[in-house]
Specification:
Radius of gyration: 25 Å
Largest sheet: 8 strands, antiparallel
Structural class: alpha+beta
Number of helices: 7
Number of strands: 28
Distance between the termini: 34 Å
């Protein structure tokens, strides 16, 4: 239990830490080398008065507005009548027709949607419903809008040729723009945080706006109404490619988006509280076999330019382990032959978060890494002659938390987003077959529950059999620089310990105490070995 903290007990086990937790940690005993900590989060204070003032200014600047908005004449200037109906209630009623659940956001929702212009055109018989993009500066909503107690996320697209003054090159697909506003930001060790250059043409609208490129996205970060907002577009920091935007081409798209933002909804909620870090609870009983190398201990010379890994003591969330059954193994799938001591389906586990890849990962040395961890299921035989390395029924992939799915039909990745009073975090799964995900309805907006099966381990990477049979799993948290990749290694270690009901041993670290080793978890959580093939419990 976190000192001075509040425990919420149940399936969705959460900690809500108070200020006393932070004070207690300062005087706490030293943490053992293998202990795992939770992250700390800062809760921002939302200035709803300023948001409502901006909303009234936007609406009252129009010569006439009617429809669902209610005004009283005063010196010939239309105004909201708060005595008739609160302004936010009226606004949410309009916006929720297009952005389902917008009233769940605890922060003012900024979107390129001019609700006042939409209502004016609707009243005057204009093409409001036939050409919604007219009121969105030519931006079309992508089928992803998620809102909750921490804030909201949304995606829009700008089609080829749309928008005056946009880049003249015709792209093969629309440019996607993402925006997130959050009242919760994660406090992570991040030397690159807070950097960027000002955007002078927008300084009068966004005084603290800064532009920078991080982890494959050009990002525009700013604070408004006390809330952290980040607008981002995936791009290449260099020459453009036929199917990829260069960041210099993304700048005018993002800045057009920023100019088009209006307050579109949200609601006042009870203020969030800072969440302090604490040493997480782990099983007392020891596992007889589960061992793991320390966080950051990647296979030598497999990091970017042969640099090392990224030690990270954090378990960024308390999750259900993403594989349905144990045993499972975190190991490299790209450099397995270099790991002479540990096979891909053997203990101890080994971190592979910062293995060399072409992906930008700010937490890794040199700025490039793997983004997540590769997880293998235990070896086993298929009951038939199909030649599969394992029975698919024993290789289920499950939701790690109650969350909303972010995924379109063409994506080979499925992301789960958790948006609560104490967390704003994303979990991404890769290498499951997209056609199977489509058939199972694992698509944008679906709500999944913790432990629900969402697929099976596969080997899809742009095409079937494109990689080995494994699951790639990674974690992003929201910061003032936007969504940032963090190491999921200790998050997985602690989740696996809960699955098997026993604490693992960090290899190379002496663990105090002589607890009696125990076997793996309950029978329904364990893949039973196929003894007909000469397997043994130790091997599986």
């Amino acid at each position: 239990m976190p000192p001075g903290g509040e425990i919420v007990v149940g399936k969705d086990f959460r900690f809500v830490s108070l200020l006393l937790a932070s004070l207690a940690l300062l005087t706490a005993a030293p943490v053992a080398a293998d202990e795992i900590r939770s992250p700390s989060l800062t809760a921002l204070r939302v200035d709803w008065r300023a948001a409502l003032d901006q909303l009234r200014t936007e609406v009252n600047s129009r010569p006439q507005i009617a429809g669902d908005f209610i005004f009283v004449p005063r010196r010939s200037v239309p105004r909201f009548d708060p005595r008739a109906m609160p302004a936010l209630v009226q606004l949410n009623a309009v916006s929720s027709q297009f952005f389902t659940g917008i009233a769940r956001s605890s922060v003012p929702v900024l979107l390129p949607f001019d609700a006042a212009a939409y209502l004016e055109a609707q009243r005057n018989g204009g093409p409001a419903t036939q050409a919604l993009s007219l009121y969105q500066a030519d931006f079309n909503p992508v089928d992803m809008f998620e809102a909750g107690p921490a804030g909201y996320s949304a995606s829009f697209s700008l089609g080829p040729g749309a928008g005056d003054g946009m880049p003249t090159r015709v792209f093969t697909k629309p440019v996607e723009i993402q925006i997130t506003g959050s009242a919760l930001v994660y406090d992570i060790a991040d030397p690159a945080a807070g950097k960027g250059e000002p955007v002078k043409p927008l300084a009068s609208i966004y005084p603290d706006l800064r532009k920078f490129i991080r982890e494959g996205y050009v990002r525009y970060a700013f604070t408004r109404f006390g809330v952290a907002y980040v607008v981002s577009i995936q791009c290449l920091d260099g020459a453009a490619k036929p199917r990829r935007l260069a960041c210099r081409e993304a700048y005018p798209v993002a800045e057009r988006f920023l100019k088009a933002l209006h307050v579109a909804g949200g609601q006042r909620m009870r203020p969030l509280m800072d969440v302090a870090s604490y040493v997480i609870d782990r099983p007392v009983a020891r596992s007889a076999d589960f061992g793991y190398r320390p966080s950051g201990d990647i296979i030598p010379n497999t990091g970017y330019r042969k640099q090392g890994g990224h030690p990270d003591a954090m378990a960024y969330a308390q999750i259900r382990f993403p594989l349905e059954k144990a045993p499972a193994f975190v190991h490299s799938q790209s450099y397995a032959k270099r790991d002479k001591d540990d096979g891909p389906t053997a203990y101890p586990w080994r971190d592979n978060f910062c293995e060399s890849r072409s992906f930008e990962v700010g937490q890794c040395a040199g700025g490039y890494g793997h983004q997540g961890e590769d997880i293998r299921a235990a070896d086993c035989r298929s009951p038939g002659d199909a030649g599969l390395p394992c029975d698919p029924r024993q290789r289920g992939v499950v939701a790690v938390r109650d969350a909303m799915v972010i995924r379109s039909t063409g994506d080979q990745a499925a992301t789960l987003e958790v948006n609560s009073r104490t967390e704003h975090i994303r979990f991404r799964y890769m290498h499951m077959n997209p056609q199977a995900l489509n058939a199972d309805g694992v698509l944008n907006g679906r709500i999944v529950t913790e432990g629900e099966r969402i697929g099976v381990i596969s080997n899809y990477l742009d095409h079937p059999a494109g990689t080995s049979m494994h699951l790639h799993f990674d974690v992003q948290v929201f910061t003032r620089d936007g969504w940032i990749w963090v190491s999921p290694y200790n998050t997985l270690v602690s989740a696996y310990e809960r699955l098997i009901r026993a604490r693992g041993r960090e290899i190379g670290t002496e663990i105090a105490g002589t607890a009696q080793p125990v076997a793996h978890a309950l029978p329904e959580d364990v893949v039973k070995p196929d003894l007909r093939e000469g397997s043994s419990s130790e091997e599986n």
